[in-house]
Amino acid sequence: MASITIRNLDDEVKDLLRQLAAENGCSMEEQARAMIRAAVEGRAGQAGRIDQIEKTLRALTDPGQNATPLSVGSSKPSIRGRLSGKRILLIIGGGIAAYKSLDLIRRLRERGASVRAVMTAAAQEFVTTLSIGALSADHVFTDLFDRNDEHDVGHIRLSREADLMVVAPATADLMAKLANGHANDLASTVLLATDKKVLMAPAMNPKMWSHPATRRNRATLQKDGIAFVGPAKGEMAESNEAGEGRMAEPLEIVAAIEAMLDERSKPLAGRRIIVTSGPTHEPIDPVRYIANRSSGKQGHAIAAALAKLGADVRLVSGPVNIADPAGVTTTHVETAAEMKEVVEHLLPADAAVFVAAVADWRTANAAGEKIKKVAGEGPPSLKMAENPDILAGVGHHSQRPGLVIGFAAETQDLISNAQVKLKKKGADFIVANDVSHESGIGPSGVMGGDRNKVRIVSRSGVEEWPEMGKDEVAARLAALIAERLRTIVV
Ligand SMILES: Cc1cc2nc3c(=O)[nH]c(=O)nc-3n(C[C@H](O)[C@H](O)[C@H](O)COP(=O)(O)O)c2cc1C
Q1: Which cofactor does it need (predicted)?
Q2: How far is the CA of 240 from the centre of ligand 1 (A)?
Q3: Is the same domain home to 188 and 327?
Q4: Would 267 be classed as within a structural domain?
Q5: 156 CB contacts (<8 Å, ≥6 apart)?
Q6: Which atom from ligand 1 is nearest to the alpha carbon of 208?
């Protein structure tokens, strides 16, 4: 099936797709596909089908027109009661996106959660305690030294009486405070004093988000186990500003909260699993690099599927254009050398799944300045050096995880290459996929596409899985990992 390029859609359509996808627990591409599929299937005649597609696409921009074909599954449970009895402590920071926290409270309460809000002094410049209190139907907490709230050490009680802390919007300032252990107002003190899980939904100007200080703080918070949802790319409230920094939509935040509080069977609870995903970029000079076509879709889907089964997932991602999976701790890297360092730092772990398409070679000496094109001199020759083999390094490591899984993307001799890799790299399984044009998997192929056809190669043989969506491959692999870890004593 052809891939759908979401970024080419209008912002209005994108926003709606994002919300529907979050409601249905699927990707935006899957949501769009489901809608188009629903429009195409089972209609009489070509003209009727075109009409139906037009109607569906019109409904994307005007949801009031359409009530039927929007959900991916036909028997989707009602949203009512999905968070029944859950207590959310919502910390609202001082950013323009604070207005979205009003909708977030509504969405959480309609799912049965109770919401108690803490507002920073800056947050009260953007939205009032009156409206937050009216929507949450509770007192709004603002002051660390409030005589009424603090007679029984209110900041500790606020944490004790919550199932989950959600910071939305998480300002650059709140992130910096928590990353550095500051506790000089109620919000930061509650965050430091809690033993509950914390989910942050950052929102800020793209320059603030990409500032090295904010990147450092995010990395520290992720290492400390704080989960993140968003931010997304898009238009900023400030005119003429666009980029990464928009707060995730309320329904995306709700989906992340639901995933974090999901109490269904969690066979991987208490297990730490490392996943690598995406390509690596190996610099030639400050502006050029060697890369590959990996999109990170399969690796990110595996990280999300493992998190759904309760694992503490540490995702190490190369540069990709997709969002960090909810409920997963993600570290972003560029090069193979950086990926290796982060992965080894994350050991020990119960399992490691190496999905990333790590470059085999890098340039031996990346130029410090942009290589200039000089007339008459011809192209520069690149001297290459071998990159570290991260899978083999972990497969033979003194702290080797109980289960080590590698991916092999091959264009020829798929099985025999995977069998050699299995032995040489000390892996338990190799998930082999044919990334050649002959794989038969749609025009976008396996790399970058949404579907995959894999074989699981182990010492006991080769298991062939049918072609399926990358999310389905991920769910099946996560179940296999859960099953294997059940029988491994580590
Ligand atoms: C109009 C305006 C909009 C702002 N928007 C943001 C924002 O979106 N994200 C952010 O991190 N800071 C933003 N700031 C800066 C914060 O309000 C400021 O850093 C404040 O100290 C944050 O306090 P808090 O973290 O205690 O809520 C904004 C400031 C102004 C005046």
Answers
A1: Mg(2+); FMN
A2: 18
A3: no
A4: no
A5: 193
A6: 11
Q: Which amino acid is at 473?
A: V
Instruction: State how far the Cα of 328 lies from the Cα of 313, in Å rounded to an integer.
Output: 5
- The domain of 330 spans 272-487
Residue 106: which H helix or E strand, with range? helix 98-110
359-381 burial code (b ≥16 CB/10 A, e <16):
beebbeebbeeeeeeeeeeeeee
**Model confidence over 150-184: pLDDT tens digits?**
555 577 788 888 999 999 999 999 999 999 999 99
Record the tokens describing residue 196, joined without a space.
Answer: 């509950």
Using an 8 Å Cβ cutoff, are 163 and 137 in contact?
no
Burial degree of 245 (CB within 10 A; 0-12, 13-18, 19+): buried
Same domain, 112 and 253: yes
Cα of 120 to ligand 1 centre, how many Å? 10
Does pTM surpass 0.70? no
Average pLDDT, the chain: 84
Are 441 and 453 contacting, i.e. CB atoms less than 8 angstroms apart?
yes
For ligand 1, the distance from its centroid to the CA atom of residue 95, given in whole angstroms, is 4
Can you say which residues are annotated as belonging to the binding site for CTP?
360, 370, 388-391, 407, 421, 425
pLDDT (tens digit, 9 = 90+) per residue, 186-217?
A: 999 999 999 899 999 999 999 999 999 999 99
Amino acid identity of residue 240, one-letter, is N
Residue that finishes a domain, picked among 238, 261, 284: 261
Q: Can you tell me the distance from the alpha carbon of 413 to that of 418, in angstroms, rounded to the nearest whole number?
A: 8
Contact residues for 145 (Cβ-Cβ < 8 A; gap 6+): none
Contact 404, 417 (CB under 8 A): no
Nearest atom in ligand 1 to the alpha carbon of residue 94 is 27
Residue 470 belongs to a domain: yes
292 given a catalytic annotation: yes
Which spans in 322-460 are helix H?
336-346, 390-395, 414-425
Among 8, 184, 217, 292, the active-site one is 292
**Which amino acid, 486?**
R
Q: Which residue has the tokens 């007679």?
A: 151
